[in-house]
Design goal:
The protein is an alpha/beta fold. The chain folds into three domains: 76 residues, Rossmann fold (3-Layer(aba) Sandwich), CATH 3.40.50; 184 residues, P-loop containing nucleotide triphosphate hydrolases (Rossmann fold, 3-Layer(aba) Sandwich); 83 residues, Ribosomal protein S10 (Alpha-Beta Plaits), CATH 3.30.70. Helices cover 29% and strands 23% of the residues. It has a six-stranded parallel beta sheet with strand order 5-15-14-6-13-12, with helices on both faces. A four-stranded antiparallel beta sheet has the order 17-18-16-19. It has a three-stranded antiparallel beta sheet with strand order 8-9-10, with no helix packed on it. Helix 8 runs parallel beside helix 9 and helix 9 packs antiparallel against helix 10. The longest helix has 21 residues. The two termini are 20 Å apart. The structure holds zinc ion (ZN) (3 copies). The site of one zinc ion (ZN) has 7 residues, from loops.
Length: 421
């Protein structure tokens, strides 16, 4: 696991970082660290070699490779199996033609065919969305922050939407800003509901579910995988847990039930997450060379992240993503750090975060430190966690460690470099 990077190995020669850029490498509680960052430091201190591998490298790492900061080796051929055929299904058409179900007619057809042939299906649904952002069902766009180009987050207590980077807020609109439709609403359907729906649609199919609720038991994660890989089930419904690991040769159908969830996730990496999600999920199919299909349901089929993922075109994605990162000054063009204040009292958390933001801003001015922007405070994406409220101040710019001494420390505070939402 990620803590292995701290193992005291006397003569370290090589560090391999598989699935570079995966969010699993980030430890988001104290001590906070990103395994890739630690591995790079470790390699430079000890002189060990570092090999980072991924089918979907992070934009920040890939840009280093392109710019010569690290050497780049490309695998141009698939090691085994053959590429799945990826189709994007436009859910706006489904809605227009009266299908308000979460499964498109095309996906239902492809799953039915796999069942007839006694082949297996994975239906993937990322539940992290939790209906916290708002999307137009007719044009597929979400309500965004004009300054940060990320989806605004719905917050019940202010009856409106907030940008969790810069703190900009506005009332919940009653019609879509882009197309005027009234058909806008919060997104989110859990895997449990999807499982129920799947069982109703295909009553004779054997259906399994894998998400963090199911996986909580000591053996249940492996039990589900074992049952599925021994083909004692036909359809596996699950969260990102199903995108990892194992070879499943009988899987010939993969459905991404809602590719809009990661696309509108209020994080500057949302396009990157969408690309890698679809690319990874597609990689789960076609392992033994049988022809297989991946159906990606979206209201944004023209989005470059989905277009490129459907083509398996990482380079194309990278080239389309870079200008957006540059325009809104996100990594690799700047570093990002978030200072979070936690308190049982919401008002106290907010006011003390505000004081910190002001203190940092005046400190930067006083000490003549430039190139760092202080934004917020804003409520954290998950505003209330375990009974405590969280407000945050975002720092953006170069050499953020120059501002570290200006940020308060203590048990109510955390300072997170390049946080994963
Ligand atoms: Zn619209
Ligand atoms: Zn809130
Ligand atoms: Zn913003």
């Amino acid at each position: 696991s990620r803590s292995a990077v701290f193992a005291p190995i006397p003569r370290l020669g090589l560090i391999c970082l598989d699935e570079e850029g995966s969010a699993a490498y980030k430890q988001d509680r104290t001590p906070r660290y990103e395994t890739g960052w630690v591995a790079r430091r470790l390699a430079s201190i000890t002189g060990a070699r570092l090999v980072a591998g991924s089918a979907t490298p992070s934009v920040a790492t890939y840009s280093q490779a392109v710019n010569g900061g690290i050497a780049l080796a490309r695998l141009t051929e698939r090691v085994r199996g053959r590429d799945a055929h990826v189709e994007l299904v436009d859910m706006r058409d489904e809605a227009a033609e009266g299908n308000r179900q979460p499964l498109s007619r095309r996906l239902v057809e492809v799953v039915s065919r796999a069942l007839e042939r006694e082949e297996q299906t994975i239906l993937y649904l990322n539940r992290r969305g939790m209906a916290t952002f708002v999307m137009c069902r007719d044009c597929g766009r979400s309500v965004q922050c004009l300054g940060c180009s990320v989806a605004l987050v719905q917050h019940a207590e202010i009856e409106g939407l907030v940008c969790h980077y810069c703190g900009y807020s506005r009332a919940m609109p009653s019609v879509c800003d882009f197309c005027g439709s009234r058909n806008i609403r919060g997104l989110g359907m859990g895997t449990q509901r999807l499982e129920g729906m799947v069982k109703k649609l295909w009553p004779s199919a054997r259906v399994l579910r894998l998400d963090s609720d199911v996986a909580r038991g000591p053996d249940s994660y492996f039990n589900v995988w074992e049952t599925f890989s021994e083909q004692r089930a036909d359809i596996l419904v699950g969260t990102q847990l199903v995108t990892r690991g194992l070879d499943l040769p009988a899987v010939t159908c993969v459905g991404v039930v809602d590719a809009d969830l990661p696309l509108h996730f209020p994080d500057y990496r949302s396009a990157e997450s969408t690309f890698s999600l679809v690319a990874q999920v597609a990689g789960r199919a076609g392992r033994d060379g049988r022809s297989s299909r991946v159906v990606v349901q979206t209201s944004n089929p023209e989005h470059y992240a989905l277009q490129c993922a459907a083509e398996g075109d990482y380079q194309g994605f990278y080239e389309a993503e870079l200008p957006a990162r540059k325009a809104f000054v996100f990594p690799p063009f700047a570093d990002l750090a978030v200072l979070t204040r936690t308190d049982r009292d919401d008002t106290k958390a907010a006011s003390s975060a505000r004081e910190a933001a002001e203190a940092i801003a005046t400190g930067l001015l006083r000490e003549g430190i430039d190139g760092i922007r202080v934004m917020g405070p804003s409520p954290a994406f998950i505003h209330k966690l375990r009974g405590e409220y969280r407000w945050q101040v975002t720092l953006k710019g170069d050499g953020l460690e120059r501002a570290r001494h200006l940020a308060p420390r203590g048990k109510d505070w955390s300072f997170d470099v390049d946080p994963v939402t």
